[in-house]
Every structure is written in structure tokens, then in C-alpha cells.
Records
---
Amino acid sequence: MTIGVYPGTFDPITYGHLDIAKRASLLFDKLIIAVYENPGKKPLFSLQQRVELIEQAIIGWPNVQVEPFHGLAVDFVQKVGGKVMVRGLRVSSDFEREFEMALMNKKLAPDIELVCLMTSVQYQFLSSSLIKEVAMLGGCLEDLVSDHVAAALREKFSSNLAKLSTARVR
Ligand code: ADP
């Protein structure tokens, strides 16, 4: 059985991530979406919330599961018996970062291969950080994230959104 692992922060999961996960799930017997705690990035959503948002988004995807992890991604891949790490590429700056990480990961775990999938064109501008900014300012998230993710974002930013609507009324 070939297991692929798609690691990331997923703060929160977007349609860009889901597109990569769906396409990767067709390449492996099992795909694990591995959610990195990433305290350095100070995520908006807790690790548990990010896992739950993904679980809800992949209901009905038979060979995909979600797991949180701490520490090195390659250690997690080895722990679950995976052979391949999956990442998504949008623009050339993603490539430079992924290339650097891939070389380091190869040094740390030579047996693990990296598969990078190119973004689908409609998601090439989509990132979790941009989504958070749009959500904070009350923009429309349709076609960018699942409805339950949009609702979770609105809840996180509810006090800011209330202030914005008061300012608009004035
Ligand atoms: P990280 O902090 O590990 O980069 P992210 O959650 O930002 O975590 O992204 C996880 C992976 O998904 C990365 O490989 C990233 O390049 C990829 N990714 C993010 N958004 C998109 C998108 N819109 N299209 C394709 N790949 C994406």
C-alpha cells in the first residue's frame, strides 16, 4: 500500500489545498493530510480546529484522512509508513521554498520522495493568509473556501466585522 502524506499548516484549509488533496488522493492508496502545529506562524485556528475543519471538508473521500503532527514532517511520514510527501506549487516563489525544503528533507530522510502538484489555474492566487485578510475585512469567500470554513472565519473575526458594519452605517 502506497501512502502519501500532504503536510501543511492549513490555517485554514482552502479550495486550493483541497484541489491538491483530491488530485493526490488519486495517486496513492491512502493520503494523509498532516496538520502541522506551527507555533512559529502563530496560527489563527488551533491545531484541533484546523483538523476539524479539514475533517468536515473531506467527508466522503474514502482514502483520505487527517492527522495532526508535531516536529519534522519527514519523521511523521516515516512514522505512518509513508514513502511520498506531497506539496502544492503556485508561483515561482513557492518553488524556491519547496526546493530548499526538499533538499533538506532528502538529507534528513533519503528514502522519502517529494511529489509537487501544480496548482489549478483558478486557485493560483489563493493562500490561507490572503483568505484571512479578506475575511477580516468582510469580503466574500465564495468559491475560495468551503461554507463551514467561511463560517468559522466570520466567527473568528466577528468583533472586527461588527466594527466595520457600524462604520459603514455612519
Ligand atoms: P505551509 O505553511 O506548510 O506552506 P500551507 O497550509 O500554507 O502550509 O500550504 C500547504 C501546502 O499547500 C504547500 O505546499 C503550499 O504551497 C500548498 N498550497 C497552498 N495553497 C495552494 C493553492 N492555492 N494551490 C496549490 N497549492 C497550494
Note: The beta strands are 3-8, 30-36, 64-69, 84-89, 113-118.
---
Amino acid sequence: MQQQNQYLKKVYVQTWGCQMNVADTERMLAHLGTCNYKPTDEVNEADFILLNTCHIREKARHKLVSRLGELKPLKEKNPDVILAIAGCVAQAESEALAKEVPFVDMIIGPDQIEQLPSLLEEVVRKHEASKGIVDSFHNSFSPFVLTKFDGKEKGYSIPIDVVPPFYDEIKNEVSRYVNIIKGCNNFCTFCVVPYTRGREKSRLQEEILQEVNHLVSKGVKEIILLGQNVNSYGLDLIGATDIHSSGGKMPFSDLLYEVSNVQGVERIRFTTSNPHDFTPTLAKAFEDLPKVTNSFHLAVQSGSDRILDRMNRQYTRNEYLERVGWIRKVRPQIAFSTDIIVGFPGESQQDFEDTLSLVEEMKYAFIYAFKYSIRKGTPATRFHDQVPEEIKDKRLQLLLDVQKKETLKQNLAEIGSVREVLILYKNRKEEDSWYGRTNEGRLVKVQTSMPCIGFTLSVKIEDANLIALVGRVCQ
Ligand code: SAH
Ligand code: SF4
Ligand code: F3S
């Protein structure tokens, strides 16, 4: 009986943004599990609605505002439902949100995750206390706001023993994110992350390895090391200000060797990595460690030196290409991917053409491309030569068209090859069909009657389109 009553409450979570936010949501769910909240996909049956938000572009913020508009009637109908905003919009705009959407109960930042159960308790208490005075939807209370950064000088810790019984149900067992560093010190002129996530703070290596061991013991095969700038992992712990003044040390590369030594780890990926903090030591790790996959996401942002300088990326086009060359030398088949911003203030037609030519030269496996979005509080807001929206639209489309052709070409070239595919999940739409990834990160639909999640299978590629390869298990 006790088992049935164990989950008294339900939490509905919606997550926007990067992998960091996805990982944060998982941590929040784990903490909520310790106080009897179980996740639900059905917003109407939730006792607690949690929106984990992204602030990176204006569009991301719009999504939050329109979702809140949809949720307002539900909250009016049932004032006992607790509604919370977490993540980067909460961090950046808590005061504005508290005024704009006063029916929200709680606004918390990314550093409040561990406190979530106690904060929630406080809000429930506030709800209870308000009953009988005024109904809690139309009350005079404003949202509970807490967005303080943790204030520690260095390092941070994520307790890994918070594992409620449903933890395994909500996880993708094969591939898991492991946070290694939070925050960013780079201050690219377009970016909100240093303001929404604070300064770089690395987790202790022992703690990361403990988590990796724990995950492997649960059947995880692929570890994705996560940070806004993983290359500067550990510099704060050794008292270096940046990678170029660390006396030749690169704790991130050391970490790759250590994770590689963990038995049961089959693949290691990492994201994201700033080309500025890239040293030959990292290329050496690629040479030495076969578990590090044959894929590399290295955001370039622009192919024009003038724009890179205005973005404060701290590398030139040639330096980027040189660093790519170090990796390609030791891993000729490696699949690169990147992020690009079009229409950054002052971007001329020539600057944009430099980006196009870089993309053509790089032959990326895929790219994420975005129109520059003006972000309050960032230095680029002050640049006067903003690019008109229609030009941004055109440039984005052109760039995406160029890359689509390249991606399709590369995928079609896979036909006839045999690839080692790590099977990640079942294809819900077809029987005996699964999805996995090649070592280069290409998505493969695999046909086999054998249950195979978590296995690495040799797959003969028989077909391909823009999105995925299609193959059959080799007999
Ligand atoms: N830390 C990563 C980037 C994280 S943000 C890195 O430096 O590589 C993810 C991507 O969002 C960025 O690479 C950039 O391409 C895009 N982005 C960030 N701010 C943006 C803005 N103001 N407008 C448009 N795109 C933006
Ligand atoms: Fe943003 Fe630049 Fe930091 Fe990446 S490196 S998170 S783009 S400030
Ligand atoms: Fe968005 Fe915050 Fe990630 S702004 S991209 S969720 S760090």
C-alpha cells in the first residue's frame, strides 16, 4: 500500500534551451522526487508546473511569455497549482517577470536547484497561510524570488546521492550528461550566458569520476561532459586565470584521460568548447583516446576576422582553421559541427561571404545557425550598425541552403559503408526499428528484431536522407 501512495504529487516540467538546461531539469526532478513529486506529461493533472527557461535569443523569451499566457487560465481555475519559472530568463529578468506575471508563485535561478524542495515547501506554506484571507490567485502577494549565485569562491558540487526511485524511469540509460563546469568568463559581446550563469566554476575531478562510475553501474555507455566552455575546466581549481597562463596545464584534457580509464565507459563526448581555449594538448587527447568520439562541435560564429573581433571571440579565422587542422591531423574522418550567427551588428555582405566560404571550406557535418538577436545588458546592444531583419532572414536562408547540400552529400556518401552504431532508443513509429548514432554522431535508423538499446552494432548503411542514415545489422 505504501508503495502506491508513495507519489502523492505530480510535477509537469517544460524545458527550453541548451543541454545544460536539460541536465538541470533532470537534477530538479531528482530533487523533487525526494519530496514525493513524480513527473507527468499532462499539465492539467500537475500539482506543480515548472518552466525551465532559456534567455539566449529574444524568441526563447517569447516562448515563455506565450506559455505563461496559456497557463494563466489553468492557474485561475485551480489556484493551488504551484507555478514556477526557473533557468536563465528567471535569472536575468526576475524583477520584470515578478511585475509582468504576478500570478507565478516562484522565480528561481540556476543556482537554486538544490534548494528547490525547501523553497517549494515555503511556497506551499505561503499558499496555505493565504487561504481564508484572500483567494490565492487574486491575493496581494508577489512571486517568491530567489536568483542569487552560490557565492563560492571556487568549485561547486552536485550531490549524486539524490536518486529517487523513479530516477531510472526518466533517464535515457545509454547516454548521459555530466556537468563539469558551470558559468562562462568569455563575455562574447552578443551573449547573455556570463550574466545568467555567472563566472566559471569547475566541479572537483573526484566528484565527476564518482558520478561517471555511478552512471556506468546503471548501464550508461556514453558520457557527455557538459559546460558552456569545457576547455577551461579546472583552471579555477588550479588558480589559473586562463588556459594560456596555466603553465602548459590543461585540466580538461587530464579529465578526458581519467574518464576514459573508467571501465564501462564506451564513448565520451563533450560540449561546448570555445576555439579560443583550444590547445595542442586537446588534440593529443584525441590522438590517444579512442573512446573520445569522432565528432567535435566547435562554434565558430563567423568567418570574418572583423566580426570575430567585434564579437570578442579572441581568435581569427586562420587560428580557428589551424586548431581544426590539429584535430584533423590525428582524426582525418572527424565530423565537425558548429554554431553561426548571421547579421551580427556591422556584418557587411563581404563579412557574410567570408562566413559562407568558411562553411564551404570546413565541410561541417551539420551547423546550428541563428539570426543575431539583441540582448539587453550585453555590449553588442550598444553597436549602432544593427543589420535589418530582412537581410538577416536572407543570409540565414542562404547559409542553411549551403549546409543542407553538404549534409545531404555527406549522408549519401555513407551508403554502402559499415558503421559502429550505439543504439540509443526505440523508434516509436515502426516495429523492430531503433535509433542510434555512429561514432561521428550521425543518426541511424536501424532495422532489427533484436532488442538492442545500449548495444553497439555493426550496421550496413543502405539509405540516407538529410536527417538520418538507414541501415541493417550486419550478420
Ligand atoms: N558556449 C558556447 C555557446 C553557447 S550559446 C560557445 O561559445 O561555443 C549557443 C549558441 O547560441 C552560440 O554559439 C551562438 O551561436 C548562439 N547565440 C548566443 N547568443 C546569441 C544572440 N544574441 N543572438 C543569436 N544567437 C546567439
Ligand atoms: Fe556565450 Fe561566448 Fe561564453 Fe559561449 S563562450 S557561453 S558564446 S560568452
Ligand atoms: Fe539558454 Fe541559459 Fe543555456 S540562456 S542556451 S538555457 S545557458
Note: The chain has twelve helices and 19 strands.
